[in-house]
Amino acid sequence: MAWYKGDKDLDAIEDEAMDWMGGRLLDSLYLVQGPQIILWRTGNVISIRWDNSEKLIDGIPVWTAKKGLYEISVDDFLLEVESFHKRFTGAMKDRVNAIATNWSRPNVEVDINRLVEEQSERERALSEALAVQHNTNWEIVRKGKRLLNELKVISHA
């Protein structure tokens, strides 16, 4: 990074920052002007922040929820996520089962076996995701924060 030459560890700091942010952003790249939503945990609180104020199409705001912050306990958040996952994968399973038992479109080829396998993978996805342990290098994160604060001071000087 040519903009800051004061530290040899800048690549490691940038990598850690990108990993940290990437693990907390809600993926919406499949949407045109998808929402910008970030989630993080502090102690027993999950914070959800969004800022869609610059998400426009032809000058018209795409999202009615322009900017905000919502906080929820970790336990309540997990209950909501698990409830949504169960309802969503349950509805998907019903569709997959209907296709597997009575596919009535001979002109459309479907790999039924793979579709059933994918459904099983989706059903396991939440428990697998919850089992992942993130090992954030907080020393590097703090160093990156100090560097950013130095840049603020330099840019305001």
In short:
By secondary structure, the protein is α+β, with helices and mostly antiparallel strands. The protein has 4 helices and 5 strands, in the order αβββββααα. Helix content is 51%, strand content 15%.
The coarse overall form would be extended
Structural class: alpha+beta
Main sheet: strand order: 1-2-5
| Strand tally | 5
Can you give a write-up of this model?
The chain is an alpha+beta fold. The protein has one domain (10-147). The chain contains 4 helices and 5 strands. It has helices spanning 10-22, 74-101, 112-131, 138-156, and strands at 37-42, 45-51, 56-57, 60-61, 67-73. The strands form 2 sheets. The protein has a 3-stranded antiparallel sheet with strand order 1-2-5. Strand 3 and strand 4 (60-61) form a beta hairpin. Helix 1 (10-22) crosses helix 4 and helix 2 packs antiparallel against helix 3.
Top keywords for this entry?
extended, alpha+beta, single chain, 4 helices, three-stranded antiparallel sheet, 157 residues, 51% helix
Summarize the SSE layout with pairings.
Elements: H1 10-22, E1 37-42, E2 45-51, E3 56-57, E4 60-61, E5 67-73, H2 74-101, H3 112-131, H4 138-156
Antiparallel strand pairs: 1-2, 2-5, 3-4
Helix pairs in contact: 1-4, 2-3
